[in-house]
Amino acid sequence: MRNITMTLPSALPSMVWGWRELLGLCKIKVVVVMLVCAAVGMALATQGLPPLTKVIIGLAGIGLASCGAAAFNHVIDRHLDAVMTRTSRRPVASKRLPVTIALAWACLLSVAGVTLLAWQVNVLAAALTFASLIGYALIYTAFLKRATPQNIVIGGVAGAAPPLLGWVAITGQVSPEPLLLMLIIFAWTPPHFWALAIHKCDDYARAGIPMLPVTHGLPFTRLQIWLYGWLTVLTTLLPVMIGMSGVLYLVIVLGLNARFMFWNWRVWRGHDATAPIGAFWFSIRYLLGVFGALLLDHYAAALAW
Ligand code: HEM
Ligand SMILES: CC(C)=CCC/C(C)=C/CC/C(C)=C/COP(=O)(O)OP(=O)(O)O
């Protein structure tokens, strides 16, 4: 007993430190935004409020699996991450955390997430979440990222899945509406990522990763951001066109789209070296804004009834 009271306080800092390293593998901020998109998918799947237990367990399952996918990415990319300034301080890349522990953590999170969904939500939601996990952790990270500048376009399918996963968690089936929400994130991914890739182009070149600005140059990448930006704007209008969202959503997204395209235009013009990183950070607020507007419009319409 005396031993425990003496050793526990001294062991506490290293236990907290260990948890911080494990949480550092989870890309928590990215996963939180993904969960917001999944929650909007859940809300839009029903007229009223979706069942709270399904929402909580569904988000827990999708969140755990996404964190697991992110942890696999840290393990598989550790050598590339070590070369890039943005990522060199990551737990596995900097060798603060052993690969075996990170791998065990990635497996634990992934199995827990997918099992929870299969057991408490439904098998289709679990299967689609598992497919997204494989899509990001294996297909994107291990193959596409090293193979082609279209890596993030193809890999973007996995990142875009959360609204579909949320919808399926509630309804148990795939429908056109969540596929359309997925399309918004799919079109948004290139402007989101290539803006950062321009800002960190030297990093990617040093690591030998064939990101678009490295393989095709900055002017071509800036043009692609501008074009995919317009594609994103078009996809955000689709919910109104099919009658899923109304005027409130339209007004909000028109404002968001104007600002989004202003940033993309600044990137496309190429006169301002700070435009790409500004556009990257705005892209995140933009996506949250679009999904927030979908939610607001959905419940405003329900209240009006
Ligand atoms: C294949 C698709 C995607 C690629 C290649 C990509 C790439 C990136 C990269 C490289 C970063 C910087 C991360 C860092 O410095 O730690 C980042 C940040 C971020 N991404 Fe993405 N992303 C993708 C999809 C998504 C999706 C689908 C979402 C949300 C729905 C998202 C939300 C975010 C957020 C919130 C951040 C900021 C994280 C922070 O503040 O640390 N991304 N993304
Ligand atoms: C189940 C499910 C929905 C899975 C998706 C999981 C997930 C966390 C996707 C994140 C997308 C992302 C941040 C990609 C960047 O990877 P990168 O390797 O290009 O970026 P990095 O250099 O910052 O690691």
Automatic annotation (TrEMBL):
Family (UniProt): Belongs to the UbiA prenyltransferase family. Protoheme IX farnesyltransferase subfamily.
Keywords: Cell membrane, Heme biosynthesis, Membrane, Transferase, Transmembrane, Transmembrane helix
UniProt GO MF annotations: protoheme IX farnesyltransferase activity
Note: Carbon 2 of the heme B porphyrin ring is defined according to the Fischer nomenclature.
Compartments reported by the entry: Cell membrane
Superkingdom of origin: Bacteria
UniProt-listed CDD domains: PT_UbiA_Cox10
Predominant subcellular localization, coarse grouping: membrane
EC number: 2.5.1.141
GO (cellular component) term, any one: plasma membrane
Known function: Converts heme B (protoheme IX) to heme O by substitution of the vinyl group on carbon 2 of heme B porphyrin ring with a hydroxyethyl farnesyl side group.
Transmembrane domains' residue ranges: 30-49, 55-76, 97-119, 125-144, 151-172, 178-197, 237-256, 277-296
Taxonomic classification: Bacteria, Pseudomonadati, Pseudomonadota, Gammaproteobacteria, Oceanospirillales
Pathway annotation: Porphyrin-containing compound metabolism; heme O biosynthesis; heme O from protoheme: step 1/1
Annotated catalysed reactions: heme b + (2E,6E)-farnesyl diphosphate + H2O = Fe(II)-heme o + diphosphate
GO biological process, one term: heme O biosynthetic process
Protein name (database record): Protoheme IX farnesyltransferase
Species this protein is from: Vreelandella maris
The protein's enzyme class: transferase
NCBIfam families: cyoE_ctaB, PRK04375.1-2
Gene name of the encoded protein: cyoE
UniProt topology in membrane: Multi-pass membrane protein
Keyword Transmembrane helix: yes
